[in-house]
Amino acid sequence: MEMTDLANAVIAGDRRALARAITRVESARADHRAEAVDLVAQARAAGRQALRIGLSGTPGVGKSTFIEAFGMMLVAQGLRVAVLAVDPSSARSGGSILGDKTRMERLSRDPAAFIRPSPSQAQMGGVARRTREAVALCEAAGFDVVLVETVGVGQSETVVAEICDLFILLLAPAGGDELQGVKRGIMEMADLILVNKADGDLKPAAQRTRADYAGALHLLRRRPQDPEGFPKALCVSAIEDSGLTEAWADMQRLAGWRKANGHWQSRRAHQARHWFGEEVRQGLLSVLDREPAKGSMAALGARVEAGDLSPEAAATQMLALLGRA
Ligand SMILES: Nc1nc2c(ncn2[C@@H]2O[C@H](COP(=O)(O)OP(=O)(O)O)[C@@H](O)[C@H]2O)c(=O)[nH]1
Ligand SMILES: [Mg+2]
């Protein structure tokens, strides 16, 4: 199928075409890469925008259960929802969402929803590109909300925050009054903290945890992209469907304010610039893995190891070679 036909089918909302298009952007083949760039450019030209929501949380906090409940709520409101996963560990676990499909049974069968598990490629640079392009394809396919799920393992949250309009941190009720070792950098990225499992015996602990995080958020430096009262912490229960409409109302309020005040557009513009730089960096690094640079690296590396050349002198020679290449 020609890329133009595939792009048109994606834009027409054909889910099988969307799945095929995402497979194309995930491909590592050089000829597929050129086609993928073309495909994504045609998809972006449709000019559609979804609300992109990043959702992060450690395994077991209830991300899959939350996405099922939250996604079903959005679908019931007539919205179309796409779910993508970023999981750098999926090479080992075999895909995060796939193993969780049972927890998203209703959503995965709903015609207004599209769920795509992580590809089994571990390299972070590749994951970032694939997710970014998959988001663009979902937008072109007319989805209103694109949820990007990631496990909280450090680097992946930053990638997701650089792709999404809103970044949500999902937490479970803490045992004591300790903040659950959430890194400051992650807290600073959060637009909304949702303390899940606020039901049954866990409810009081969830409320305490929410209050602790609300206090911690208050201590952070005020960000220009936030209206009064944001970022905020809320309690939700994915199994009891409670707090979900409130959380959605807050997401819409925040997104609406940012749109009205230019922050939405400038965030996307900054993100585009960021990814341009990253693509160039990745491209430069990949030069080292190909001939002739690969051979020169090996030869100079051997001389450094043998004590013939200092690391610095060898690096200078290598960089000079690259400059000439
Ligand atoms: N009590 C309670 N348990 C929940 C809730 N949401 C998820 N769980 C449970 O927490 C466990 C992990 O959920 P899962 O969605 O797989 O978490 P994930 O690893 O973050 O995707 C499962 O046993 C769920 O049933 C909730 O709102 N309340
Ligand atoms: Mg899960």
Automatic annotation (TrEMBL):
Belongs to the SIMIBI class G3E GTPase family. ArgK/MeaB subfamily. GO terms for cellular component: cytoplasm. Keywords: Hydrolase. The keyword Nucleotide-binding does not apply. The keyword Translocase does not apply. It comes from the Bacteria. Transmembrane segments: none annotated. Coiled coil: none annotated. SUPFAM superfamilies: P-loop containing nucleoside triphosphate hydrolases (SSF52540). Its EC number is 3.6.5.-. Pfam families: MeaB. NCBIfam families: lao, PRK09435.1. This is Methylmalonyl Co-A mutase-associated GTPase MeaB. GO terms for molecular function: GTP binding; GTPase activity.
